[in-house]
Amino acid sequence: MNNKTTLEFLEKVDFLKNLPGLDTLATNCKEEFLPQKAFLFKEGDIGEAMYIITSGSLEVFKENRVIANRTSGEYIGEMALLGNQIRSASARATTDVQAIEIRKEYFLSFLSTNPMAFLPLFQTLTSRWKEDLKNINSDNLELKNQIKLNQRFSLLLDDTVNEIFILNPDTYQIIQANLKSSQNLGYTREELSNTTFNETFQDLSQGELSEKLQNLVKKKQAQVSFENQHKRKDGSNFPVEVRIQYSEIEDPPLIYAIVEDISDRKAMENHIKHLAFYDSLTELPNRNLIKDRLNIMLAQATRTNTKVAILFMGLDNFKNVNDSLGHEAGDQFLVQVANRFEKPLRKEDTFGRLGGDEFIILFPALKNENFVAKLAQRVLDIMDQPLELKGKQFHSTFSVGVAIFPQDGKDIETLFKNSSIAMYQAKESGGNAYRLYESSMHDKIMSRLTLEQDLRKALKNKEFELHYQPKVSMRTGEIEGLEALIRWNHPDGKEISPAVFIPIAEESQIINKIGEWTFIEACRQIREWQQKYDSAVKIGVNLSGRQFDQPNLVEKINSIIKSEGIDAKYLEIEVTETAIMSNIKEAIEALKQFRELGIHISVDDFGSGYTSLGYLTKLPINTLKIDQSFISGCTDSSNIAIIQGIIAISQKMGFQTIAEGVETREQLNLLKSLGCDQFQGYLFSKPLPAREIVHLIWPAQKASIQAPPF
Ligand code: C2E
Ligand code: MG
Ligand code: MG
Question: Would the CB of 500 count as within 6 Å of ligand 1?
Answer without folding.
Answer: no
